[in-house]
From TrEMBL:
Residues 2-58 form the HTH lysR-type domain. It comes from Stutzerimonas stutzeri. It comes from the Bacteria. One of its GO terms (molecular function) is DNA-binding transcription factor activity. This is LysR family transcriptional regulator. Keywords: DNA-binding, Transcription, Transcription regulation. SUPFAM superfamilies: Periplasmic binding protein-like II, Winged helix' DNA-binding domain.
Amino acid sequence: MFDYKLLLALAAVVEQAGFDRAAQALGLSQSAVSQRIKLLEARLGQPVLLRASPPQPTEIGRRLLNHVQQVRLLERDLQGQVPALAEGRLPERLRIALNADSLSTWWADAVAPFCTAHGVVLDHVLEDQDVGLKRMRAGEVAACVCAVDRPLAGARSQFLGAMRYRAVASPAFVARHLGDGASADALLRAPAIVFGPDDQLQHRYLASLGLTGAFSHHLCPSSEGFVRLLTSDLGWGMVPELQVRGELASGVLVDVFRGMPIDVPLYWHHWRNGGALLAELTQQLTRSVRQWLVG
């Protein structure tokens, strides 16, 4: 039989990115959390954590974390059937990994009715859409939004739609760097704005124009800051059409090359044994998201 106090200690250390914050979240001392992890490892005969900064789960640790995620959700179902079990408990917290562009555009409107109806709070883990699935694989989240269609073992994948990105810049930037007519070569020489090391949208866009190789770029790991840099004439970049409709309509930003967007497919991944709560969140997303994403 699993000792769930030990498993919850493991989950807290990974989710809180350290023993100190895990102890605070569990209302224990750091020593007590450390002892629970050591006891779990002693019973298994192998380590469940790599003592890095932050701590990382081992392969067996990831399997245990995935199990804990699903048990938490199934317990929520049981509390609904036996209300006495829910007395004194805090609202259910779902950890979801998704990309910053989704969080800054369609996500809040899509999930707000669900959270209100079920009294659920969300713990958002930001990750680029191309690599978000790694958080679920590591057992850190119950579900994720990412650009990968193939689900993990024991999970399901649901196509939500595509987020349309456009290459945009300020009129002043276009005049200064691209002249009267935007050319692919001039765009390669002009500074770009890239969200982070995993952001390949600008690279893909240049490749679609037949261009490869290094290019000068600013790094800006903030969706709102990204647009602010664009409107301040600092570079060109790929931005969700949803996010800059107002700027495009007013002329604050303009398309660098009209009619050449990139559509990034988004998939919702969740555990098969995630219980009724996760199933209802999935239904809510699939019902509502098509008004914001390209079908």
